[in-house]
Amino acid sequence: MKSLFALTLLAASPALADTMPGVRGVNHIGITVPDLAQAEAFFTDVLACQKAMSFGPFRDDTGTFMQDVLDVDPRAVIEEITLMRCGFGSNIELFHYTAPDQKTVTARNSDIGGHHIAFYVDDIDAVAAYLKDKGLKVNMGPIPVSEGPAAGQSILYFSAPWGLQLEAISFPGGMAYEKDGGPILWSNTAPEK
To answer: How does residue 6 score in pLDDT terms, banded at 50, 70 and 90?
Structure first.
């Protein structure tokens, strides 16, 4: 149940008045992968996600449905979509596309549109050892953050076999910014309704 203070703050905030109505949170993150079976196995066997369902294909061989709905080449085909449930966080939607104009370059974090997915973990040192034992590309770290608003967290970047960048993050004692208030960035419990 929200406090009276929180409800008053929400009602008084002009910035919230023009936001998208009814937003509850992030439902899923969609990722196009080169090999759906490999990606599903990686998210299941390495990251402990669970497969919820698969469906598809989606195509329009004569019209512009794919372009109109997804802003992709009209002849693009979504061969299959698989939804993965990942612990308490957001879901992952894996797409396997074929398209005449498909690019196969993996974006880096520094590229416009670059991205990564961060997984909250309880013991980041154990995760680092686990990922190295699995033979995955693991960057420098874990790196503990000891200064600034993010003090209290530790991070470790690593890559899926096809190049998708991922991050392990942990802040079991919270982060420094929390002492001044603000939204909590991770909880192992479902949000209040």
So the answer is: very low
